Structures are given as structure tokens and as C-alpha cells.
Amino acid sequence: xxxxxxxxxxxxxxxxxxxxxxxxxxxxxxxxxxxxxxxxxxxxxxxxxxxxxxxxxxxxxxxxxxxxxxxxxxxxxxxxxxxxxxxxxxxxxxxxxxxxxxxxxxxxxxxxxxxxxxxxxxxxxxxxxxxxxxxxxxxxxxxxxxxxxxxxxxxxxxxxxxxxxxxxxxxxxxxxxxxxxxxxxxxxxxxxxxxxxxxxxxxxxxxxxxxxxxxxxxxxxxxxxxxxxxxxxxxxxxxxxxxxxxxxxxxxxxxxxxxxxxxxxxxxxxxxxxxxxxxxxxxxxxxxxxxxxxxxxxxxxxxxxxxxxxxxxxxxxxxxxxxxxxxx
Length: 328
Prior knowledge:
- By secondary structure, the chain is an alpha/beta fold.
- The protein has two domains: 1-38; 49-327, Divalent-metal-dependent TIM barrel enzymes (TIM Barrel, Alpha-Beta Barrel), CATH 3.20.20.
- The chain has eleven helices and eight strands.
- The chain has helices spanning 3-37, 68-74, 92-102, 123-142, 166-186, 206-216, 227-233, 237-244, 268-277, 294-300, 310-327, and strands at 49-53, 79-84, 105-110, 147-150, 189-192, 221-226, 248-253, 283-286.
- The protein has an eight-stranded parallel barrel, surrounded by six helices.
- The chain is globular and about 45 Å long.
- The N and C termini lie far apart (68 Å).
């Protein structure tokens, strides 16, 4: 083989190697760019505080129940949720003192009673509803609480037999807006809770509640997402949480049968991943109800035992939620 032929082949081989190197470099850069453009999963851990709704132990909160605050704190909770059903029995100073001594936070569970209804056709009932809601906000502030949440629009299981009307919606918006302005003065956050169709006709889904919050348009007003109600009404609970996004202001962790979180079919891992994705950093509060208390069980439609013991639900539920949240 002649020298010219060897030189020619050497030149072509070197050119091929160079072309391959360039192509590899371009492909590598393209791959890096593609990776950088892909959405990144959240890397920060979910930072929330864990609370326990004291409806697990009592339907009201008289002075003899104040020791529950220390008990719940000793279980490892960051705070308690006080049921605001009978507003006349609560010793506000004792509650605040116990809260501060235990070093925990406090929220309240707001419940409307008969005759107090923000969407009633009766003007007096709407006024009574607004006065009760403002009172619950004030009580929350006096106890040292930071959030008042619940079905703040109407009594539980108040059903008219038909869908809400435009007038009812407007009346509710006006009242909730006034309540949000009152909450601003009290420095208390307010969250509206959608209930399932068997407990209300007015706000059933997270999207319903978000619509209300958007139309009121006040920074103190957010949405309470409850997994018990979401399990009934939402197509996909986690996707619905993501759809609410920054409007989620409170979270009730409730198993599908109101039993111990983690023992049913609520998609907890997906729900916590959704909370993490939207940057939620407020309360995750377990909500269940005391067994053996006739009026409370009737209101919640609990006709059979749903857990072995209230203490067991509180301890096991907290351990499960913390573990699941850490893995989300």
C-alpha cells in the first residue's frame, strides 16, 4: 500500500473520530438541557404541625376537660383543636393557660347551630349565623388560637332537598366576607370546610370551597380540606388538593370510616405528596369523634365502634401520619 493511501485513510479516520466526538458532545448537551427542563420534584421535607381535634374525647369543652390539652401534648402533638359547639361552657383563661403551659398551638372547630345559618332565606337566621361566627373567631383569639375552621356557612345536616340557589350563594358570600374582615381584626385565620352531600347541600367539594374563597377574596379566608369528605365527593383527593393549591389553609386527617388513620383506604401517601407539592406548611389535624355520646354520634352518623380506644387512635394515628409524611 502506498504512502499516499495510508495518509488518506488516516485523515478520514481522524475526521470520523472528531465528528463522533462532536456529535456525542451535542447529544450530551441536549440531554442535559432536556433534564434541566423537566419539572423537578419537591426536595424539601413536608413541614407541618400535627393537631388533634378534641371531639375525639368530648363534644363540648367545659373546665373539667382542660387537662386534655396536656394529655395531647404529652402524646407528641403540636397542638389541639377545640370544639366550639356549646360556647357558654368554655373557660377561656383556663384554656389559654393550659395551652401555654403545655407549649402547644391551638385551633378551633367551628360548628353552626340551629337558627344560625349564613345561607338561610330568613334574614334573622343569617344575622344570627354571622354573630355566632364572629363570636367563635373572638373565642379562638382569646384562647390564644390561630385558626378557626369548619362548615361555617350552615348547621351540619341542614338540607333543603334541592341544590343551592344564587341568592343563598350571595347571602353566604356577604356574611363570610364580613367574618373574614372580623378575623383580620382578631388576627385569626378562617377556613371553610366542604362537607359530603349527606351533611350539606351547600359546599360539597374542595372546588366549591375554593370558588367561595376566591369570590370572597380576603387573605384571612382559606379552604379546609378533609379527607373523610373528600373520600366521598372527590374523583381524586390528591389531585383536588393540588387543584386548590395556595387556597388550602387547614387540613383534617380523617380515615374513610373515621377510624384510625392508616387503617382504611384514604390515599395518604398521595395526599401528603400533594400537600408537599403545593408548599402547605400549616396544621394536619386528626379528626374523629367520641364514641358513646349519643348526640355527637347521631350528628356524625356513627352507629358502631370505629376504633378500639380514643387514646389508641390518637397515638397510632399520629405515628402513621408522621411516618407517611416523612416518606412523601
